[in-house]
Amino acid sequence: MDFDTALRRYQAGEAERADLKLLVKQLLKLLVAKAPGHAVEVRVPPYGAVQCIEGPRHTRGTPGAVVEMPPELWIDLGLGRITWPEARDSGKLRASGERTDLSALLPLVED
Fold it and tell me: Which of 72, 78, 88, 105 could disulfide-pair with 27, CB 3.0 to 4.6 Å?
């Protein structure tokens, strides 16, 4: 399976667990490529977590800056189907610490 196939299934409302996993991981890779660093940890359980954005490096324990959301919300953000403010207002996005506003980095792929 590839990104385009998983994306088509997601857009059709037919995505399976494997599709969600592939889309989440690929979009997280694009985020890291666009904003390398270790200042913010972006978590999309249960499929992945990455550190990105330049700034103070986190080495032990819970990072000072964390963004966490469900897979579908991350995919919608990455594709530009929802804006950062809309995601925050949804109540499904948790962001704490400095540099956790990812709006300047999104979307990662045009839907």
Answer: 78
